[in-house]
Amino acid sequence: MQHFRGRDGAELAYREVGDGRPLVLIHGFFSNGFVNWIKYGHAAALAERGFRVVMPDLRAHGESAKPHEASAYYPDVLAEDGEALLEHLGLTDYDLGGYSLGARTVVRMLVRGARPRRAIVAGMGLDGMLHPLRNRQHFVDVLTATEAYPHGTPEFLTQAFLRTTGGDPKALVHVVDTQVANSPADLAAIDVPTAVILGTEDDNGSGPGLADALGEGYFLPIPGTHMGAVTRPELAAAIGDFLTD
To answer: Fewer CB near the terminus (10 Å): N or C of the chain?
Structure first.
């Protein structure tokens, strides 16, 4: 575990696995670098393919700072934290990827000017990228709930994942409103070769639609739901194949 500072001074954490070409991978909402990339073997598989895998914990997640003040969660702060990590590591020739919220963060970094050699946008389709607040109330309700939701409901499943990662609801609830919508013009202007990797049962919008909307997008389907695809070896395989092609 290593640390760096966000531009507002927040202390943020990251892990590294492997040596070789730098690959920064950003995890999803409620998760962290360990759960998203190490637990299911993705980081090890990519390290074996010659990558130095850098995995930050987003603010309010994992071992990073979890302030409860809303002022610490301004729009695009996650993208800004990603930029601060690149600056901290001195990276100019690197690859960049993310899953779910991490994918949205990657796209915001690209819109703001980050230029990796190649990018990975996983667990996110076109509608989820154009309308990042479409599920806002669901997450706010779960993060502010005082009782457990009925078994089998979407809220119950979200609560269960929150418990497994030990998330801090009072910090995480502010993350929701940091997300910034992308316009079709924003997506079209991204000229970085980008793989859109989406589970065949994921409901976060159209993977082919997002690939077509990007300046240079490629759709790579893998098996699974949104929560299931991230646990499967096909995710690391698709990332590695795209980056080494």
So the answer is: C
